[in-house]
Amino acid sequence: xxxxxxxxxxxxxxxxxxxxxxxxxxxxGAKSCKTFADRITGKIMDEQTPVDGKxxxxxxxxxxxxxxxxxxxxxxxxxxxKAAKTTKNMAALIIKVSKPLAYAVAGRCGCILAAxxxxxxxxxxx
Length: 126
Known about the structure:
By secondary structure, the chain is an alpha+beta fold. Helices cover 38% and strands 10% of the residues.
């Protein structure tokens, strides 16, 4: 089994290592912004439901549509988590990558981090 691909910061998450999943397909609360980028072509599909009369396109879906490498990374992460099947296995997959990142960051900034393994993980993946 492969490893999740973590990236360092983006427009919203400054200074944070994170992993991303395909937008729209993995956003259970999306309404006014529900947008999908086709897995293969990147073609945008809009399924917004107006909230207070307003809709807009998800910035992450637009990123996936414009950048095939971003789309591929998010779908690879999704496939890995789906294949893990259980919350416990998904957590193990996340910890396998995030623990070395946490130690590297801690070493660089001299911070003491909470033990990642003591955290509880939940998932909305089926």
